[in-house]
Amino acid sequence: xxxxxxxxxxxxxxxxxxxxxxxxxxxxxxxxxxxxxxxxxxxxxxxxxxxxxxxxxxxxxxxxxxxxxxxxxxxxxxxxxxxxxxxxxxxxxxxxxxxxxxxxxxxxxxxxxxxxxxxxxxxxxxxxxxxxxxxxxxxxxxxxxxxxxxxxxxxxxxxxxxxxxxxxxxxx
Length: 172
Description:
This protein has 172 residues and is mainly α. It has helices spanning 3-31, 45-56, 59-77, 80-102, 110-133, 142-164. It has a single domain, classed as Arp2/3 complex 21 kDa subunit ARPC3, CATH 1.10.1760.
């Protein structure tokens, strides 16, 4: 087998592992909600995979893994409504994290990118809820979600930093 084929096989296998890991993280979060008494709050462990992918792979590979995770989660555990919420949050989050990670000045750290992604995810889901439910009052929940998103985004960013230093995740 030629060296180029080995590298491609490695990338494909690693992407498959990352999709599976994101699915497991999402499922664990679904089974074990945070005990803080605020509806819908999650740590965003699946976003850890997206952040690592964004810094380690080409952007379109990271996007593909993110979308695969969303669609497979929908097929295994979700409903049409959950798919809409996940897509709105996931795509907005990914787009903002991609933009923030590529800016030269000011540059954002992995933590800053993760915070922006967490907050954007919450904004995307609230926008979807306002449209689907035709209820603008849902937007009043946004300040709480932004504050929690800043906290969870910080935690995910802190976890991602040492992972990204691992030789396995040098720009693949």
